[in-house]
Design brief:
The protein is an alpha/beta fold. It is built from ten helices and seven strands. Helices cover 48% and strands 13% of the residues. Helix 1 links the parallel strand 1 and strand 2.
Length: 239
């Protein structure tokens, strides 16, 4: 049984059309057809030439003005970067390896966006903060940065291996709407308990990543939300 997860490649403000074409070709190699482009450069003849037999991926690519618009389209969003160094206390760039992520996501049902940043700067911190996971591809400490299309190919290759190991009985997991409701409820609780303002944003990111790793089932979601809703109700009464 093949995975019913839909993978989407998201390129944020790609600067070179040739890279877009090369990414489309990689996607074709691994049967991934959804390409989302945020404020991209022009898709010109060089992009067409480098895409080879993946012209339909370029033709059907969805164009967005902002990353926020893309985020609303995705049930699960993973940021990629070679710039890491976070810790459990500084969670924004606390990365898991690609293999760890593949193991976490293999039984997820929904639209998963793999987000790649600008060729010269990568992803901004505020873009990373809205993602459910943050991954890196282990490379040499002497030269960590990969060519964009090479990075896409490596990620899609590992994901393709996981698709063929899907369990016979799948568990229905939380989607984007449930994830945002849970994150919003946790944020409301932090506000109600007067959580220290200087720790607030970092803690919100930590909780988002924790939920992203756990990927609760729908049944678990309703149970947890029942607890959170009752907590919010009681906190409001005593304020």
């Amino acid at each position: 049984m093949r995975s019913i997860t839909e993978y989407c490649v998201v390129l944020v403000e790609p600067k070179y059309s040739g890279n877009i074409g090369a990414v489309a070709r990689c996607m074709k190699n691994f049967d991934v057809s959804s390409l989302y482009l945020v404020n991209p450069c022009e898709i010109d003849d060089e992009a067409r030439a480098r895409a080879m037999h993946a012209q339909e991926i370029l033709d059907n690519a969805k164009i967005f003005d902002t990353f926020g618009e893309v985020r609303k389209e995705l049930d699960y969003c993973v940021a990629t970067s070679s710039i890491v160094g976070g810790t459990e206390k500084r969670y924004l760039r606390y990365a898991v390896t690609l293999r760890e992520f593949v193991n976490q996501i293999e039984d997820f049902d929904g639209r998963v966006g793999i987000v790649f940043g600008r060729e010269d700067y990568g992803l901004y911190n505020e873009e990373i903060a809205t993602c459910d996971a943050f991954i890196t591809i282990p490379t040499s400490d002497r030269y960590r940065s990969l060519n964009l299309s090479h990075a896409v190919a490596i990620v899609l290759y590992d994901l393709s291996l996981a698709r063929d190991k899907s369990p016979e009985k799948r568990v229905k997991r939380m989607g984007r709407i449930e994830t945002e409701k849970m994150n919003n409820s946790l944020a409301e609780i932090l506000k109600l308990i007067n959580y220290p303002s200087h720790k607030l944003e970092r803690t919100k990111i930590l909780l988002r990543r924790l939920i992203g790793r756990a990927k609760p089932s729908i049944w678990e979601y309703h149970t947890i939300m029942g607890i959170l809703s009752e907590t919010i109700k009681r906190l409001k009464k005593i304020r």
